[in-house]
Specification:
Number of domains: 2
Largest sheet: 7 strands, parallel
Strand order of the largest sheet: 3-2-4-1-5-6-7
Domain CobW/HypB/UreG nucleotide-binding: 8-183
Strand content: 25-35%
Oligomer: single chain
CATH architecture of the largest domain: 3-Layer(aba) Sandwich
Pfam families: cobW (PF02492), CobW_C (PF07683)
Structural class: alpha/beta
Domain CobW C-terminal: 220-286
Shape: globular
Protein name: CobW/P47K family protein
Helix content: 25-40%
Length: 311
């Protein structure tokens, strides 16, 4: 009988550093046979383009337009895990969407074992926490608490953006939710997954019904435009919509080449991206509900010269 594939779940709020950490993991495990499931709330996949594609033998499945723990695409998640279980892989890494509530993962794995011969060696969940924004959203979003509660380890990322006192307060909040989780302070999510997994299995909280439902999904839109905007116009646009968003990410066609845009709250990174782009596509996750349509449209009218498409 062949060895079971090891399964590792990566969770963490929007922009906490999951994709950055996953790229570190792919480099660290480059000699292994790897399967990836990358999940995004939006219908437009961005993270898949940011993940390393130079690892031989890696298989990737993208599941977009919902949470893998929500009924909307849970069946696709189950099918994907069954598919990857049959490929004789060493590891399967699942990057959950930023607002995923993983409290039903054990029930899902039990369901898979019942439906098929697909059985995984579940190594647990690794939760990435944004040291700057975690305190702001913890009391507002149940999913963030559940992500910490159901993790074997917490990677406290972006510690360079907070003071020592703020860091201590965040760690205290994490300990109150999950006293047994190993805790790692990082910048750019730079920590070894092998080191994390070497700590041995952790007792997991009892499974619950996930809070991810159709009604709890944040409003998410995609902005598209053919215009090559100036970097100054792009920055102004992002500054204007920032207070109304949890997260903005994607690729922008500018007069100075393609830019990779990543914004969490008011913290924004705009970096050069080598691939030429036919049009701008920015995924915008709202914290003001459907009002994000009018906020985005008005900002685009002020900052861009050409009409934009929102959907």
């Amino acid at each position: 009988m062949k060895d079971m594939s090891k399964l590792v779940l990566l969770t963490g709020f929007l922009g906490a550093g999951k994709t950055t950490f996953l790229n570190h993991v792919l480099q660290e495990f480059s000699q292994e046979k790897i399967g990836l499931i990358v999940n995004e709330f939006s219908g437009t996949g961005v993270d898949g383009a940011l993940i390393r594609h130079d690892i031989p033998g890696a298989s990737m499945i993208e599941l977009n337009n919902g949470s893998i723990f929500c009924a909307c695409i849970k069946d696709s998640f189950v099918d994907s895990l069954i598919d990857l279980a049959g490929r004789n892989l060493d590891y399967v890494f699942v990057e959950a969407s930023g607002l995923a509530d993983p409290s039903s993962i054990s029930s899902i794995l039990d369901q898979i074992a019942t439906l098929s011969c697909a059985v995984y060696d579940y190594c647990g969940a690794i939760c990435l926490v944004d040291a700057l924004y975690f305190p702001k959203y913890l009391k507002l979003l149940l999913a963030l608490r559940r992500q910490v509660e159901y993790s074997r380890a917490v990677i406290l990322n972006k510690v360079d953006l907070v003071t020592g006192e703020q860091l201590t307060q965040v760690e205290q909040s994490i300990r109150e939710i999950n006293p047994s989780a190993a805790l790692y302070r990082t910048t750019y999510a730079n920590v070894s997954l092998r080191e994390i997994l070497s700590g041995g299995p952790q007792e997991e909280a009892a499974p619950q019904e996930s809070s991810n439902t159709e009604s709890s999904r944040p409003v998410t839109i995609t902005l598209s435009t053919q215009e090559a905007v100036t970097p100054q116009a792009l920055r102004q646009f992002l500054d204007e919509i920032a207070p109304s968003t949890y997260r903005v990410k994607g690729f922008c066609r500018t007069t100075e080449g393609t830019k990779n845009v990543s914004m969490v709250g008011t913290v924004c990174q705009i970096e050069d991206w080598g691939d030429a782009l036919g049009q701008t596509q920015l995924v915008i996750i709202s914290n003001v509900g459907v009002r994000i349509f009018s906020v985005t449209l008005e900002a685009a009218k002020r900052c861009f010269q050409s009409p934009v498409d929102l959907r």
